[in-house]
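Researcher: First entry.
Model:
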Amino acid sequence: MGVASKYWKWWVCALLLFASTINYMDRMTLASVSRRVIDELHLTKADYGMVEQYFGYAFAFGAIIFGLIVDRVSPKWLYPAVLALWSAMGVLTAYAGSFGGISALSSLLLCRTLLGLFESGHWPCALQTTQRLLAPQDRALGNSILQSGVSIGAIVTPFIINAMLTPEAGSWRLPFIVIGAVGIVWVFAWIFTMRGQVIEVPVKSGEKAHWTTALREIASDHRFWLLAVVVSCINTTWSLYRVWLPLALQDKSGLAFTEEQTLGRILPIYYILTDIGCIAAGAATVWLHKRGFSVLNSRRWVFTVCSLLVLPAMFLPNLARGEYALPGFSPIQAAMLVLLMTAAGSLGVFPCYYAFTQELSKQHIGLVTGLLSFIAWIGGSSLQKPLGALIDRTGSYDFAFQAGAWPILGAAICLWLFWDLPWRKSQPA
């Protein structure tokens, strides 16, 4: 491969980074303006929870659907199609409540459900691209570039939205249009970059077992079902805080920060800490292994420490109200300290989880991750509407923090107890 080709493939990886950024920006936009959307469209918290619930359901089913499609259709063409479609759904969200004959809730629900469906195509397309484009020794770096776009999207979105919002009603609609338009620009950049290029790799007949055979092998491994529990727990924590934290920070019955403080300072810092926690967790597993810990135990210890960082979040509202105190800290300082610990721990568990999934199968990791993603999104999303209804009824976000705090610790305990069953030694598929 020549010098020009090397530059080209890394330019494609840069496009993948931007796609991940756009993917998470489209996802974060609604949460960032949720207070205004709820007020202006006259929604309840249960309505908002239902919108996020159906986004998650659509993402769960789409993860399997697009995982199967991308094995048969080149990402060269599938990728821009799904990105254009989810960008269009992002733009249409700006007009929720303006569709003739459809209620505000129904139009918002339709747009976000379709957004979840089409967004789920991002990861299968992106991972297929890095697999087909990069040599084995370059794939880890390519995937790191791809993954970093998620953190970038989470960090920059509140800044962008805060700059666009004005006191005028309806100003929350503009960010959906602008961010959606950025996606369309990406589509043209991808098509231009890929013209005349071939990224398909021929697969010989019989090289892989049929997916039904692989499915039976995976389902017979007890560790798959253990990881189904683990990913349901960690995704529940991440999703609950992603959806409800912007509201809890601004609501008078929550932490009562202003919109500018929430979007301009607190949320960007929160997501910077998630990225730091994620990187630190991966580095910590290497550090522990070099000091004599087994690979398995280094992952379990890091996972456990991250879960303990998240656990104090159940007391965050009590700290903010001064009902509990940390010596030397004001109530708000104590609450912010716990919030930043939660940020670091809640994403820090994911590198360990991904490493555990790679132990299940060497040949069918796509099928493994697709199935686990489906389980994770179905489980976590099912809590969103009931939690919204509870907030409507009680006016309190306390349970949201409590419900998000303990599942990760439960996942850590399961990894210690059940990964190596004494009566069964599992073999990689």
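Researcher: Second entry.
Model:
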Amino acid sequence: MPVRDVNNATYHYTDQGSGQPVILLHGFMGSILNWDTITPILERHNRVIAIDILGHGRSASPANFRRYSIEETASDIAALLETLNAKSINLVGYSMGARVALYFALANPHFMNKLVLESGSPGLETQIEQSSRIASDHQLARWLLENGMAAFVERWEQLPLFASQTRLPAEAQAKQKAQRLQNDPIGLANSLRGMGTGSQPSLWEKLNKLTAPTLLIAGDLDPKYCAIAARLAQILPQATLQIVPDAGHNVHLEKQKAYLQLVQNFLKG
């Protein structure tokens, strides 16, 4: 699979199909492998580029956590897309990837055609919330490095946010766990420190400047992100809100058919 060096960091990605580029950004602890059943369907009518975000998958895991900031990550993605001659993109992000996608779209409107945010957030609104979350993420990063990947994956999978995923077939759960275990612990720890929700700048006050038509997706078993998506839908100039029944935080994993139908219809429309 191809890699490119951008801004002194190596990025791993896949680039398949032809037509208008669709860029896929995974969530925390994820990688491009999370899209392996989504990509073959999207690439029937699109050029699909899936990217391992810094610290994940086979992309670089720098030692300095500040290198993982959402500002530098968005700059890296812009540089990568420039080298791939990917313009007028449809940008699709899930969870952490949705936070990156939203920041990227606001910072780089010249790249944008359409935006899809699945279980995404514009960040925290107050400095108190940000400071508390930063402290929590740094503590979690230390726990990861002290206890190792296997223990961290077990802890992560027990979060209430992912409770609905326990209903998935055992094979699907095992596949996701195996993918998570392939990540570099230093990369994940530094991603938490450098690009956690507390570390990113709040985007709430900038949302009315987003010009790209935006599809907001959340699962109805994930009330926190349903509420965030509903607020976003009221603020964004061109937003479509879709709440998927009987789905949790990871809609594209739990309800793939419904997710693909929403995304494909949105991109075509």
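Model: Note on the second entry: Residues 3-268 form a domain with the Rossmann fold fold (CATH 3.40.50.1820).
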